[in-house]
Specification:
With 113 residues, the chain is of the alpha/beta class. The chain has a single domain, classed as Beta Barrel (Barwin-like endoglucanases), CATH 2.40.40. Helices cover 19% and strands 37% of the residues. The chain has 2 helices and 6 strands; from the N terminus they run H-E-E-E-E-E-H-E. The longest helix has 15 residues. The protein is globular. 30% of the residues are buried. Keywords: Cell wall biogenesis/degradation, Lipoprotein, Lyase. Its EC number is 4.2.2.-. It is an enzyme of class 4 (lyase). GO terms for molecular function: lytic endotransglycosylase activity.
Length: 113
């Protein structure tokens, strides 16, 4: 029974990030001078996601103002409960939530790596 529950959890997480699927949750932003998990740097329009492959592109839409941007996944995270994605500072500015720090967003995968 335990294996079945774990298997269902994995399937539901995978389905939520499949091409054309979307997930709604909180986004935050980050920026630092170090390297990301992929070995690159936080870029102009990049983001961190827990499971999407590096190089995947996703559309992030701020549900409060309907602004959206397309970012490239190049890092892992966020590691805060309830958050689904961390975007770069510039992406947060474009989405209109840099001053707030956190926003409710919809994340849609638009291309696969």
């Amino acid at each position: 029974m335990k294996r079945l529950i774990i298997g269902l959890a994995v399937v539901s997480v995978s389905a939520s990030t499949a091409l054309g699927q979307s997930i709604v949750g909180k986004a935050s932003y980050y920026g630092y001078g170090g390297r990301t998990a992929s070995g690159s740097h936080v870029g102009h329009m990049t983001a961190a996601h827990r499971s999407l492959p590096f190089g995947s592109r996703v559309r992030v839409t701020n549900l409060a103002n309907d602004r959206s941007v397309i970012v490239t996944i190049n890092d892992r995270g966020p590691f805060v409960r309830g958050r689904v994605i961390d975007v770069s500072v510039h992406a947060a500015e474009s989405l209109g939530f840099r001053s707030a720090g956190v926003a409710r967003v919809k994340v849609e995968r638009v291309s696969e790596r």
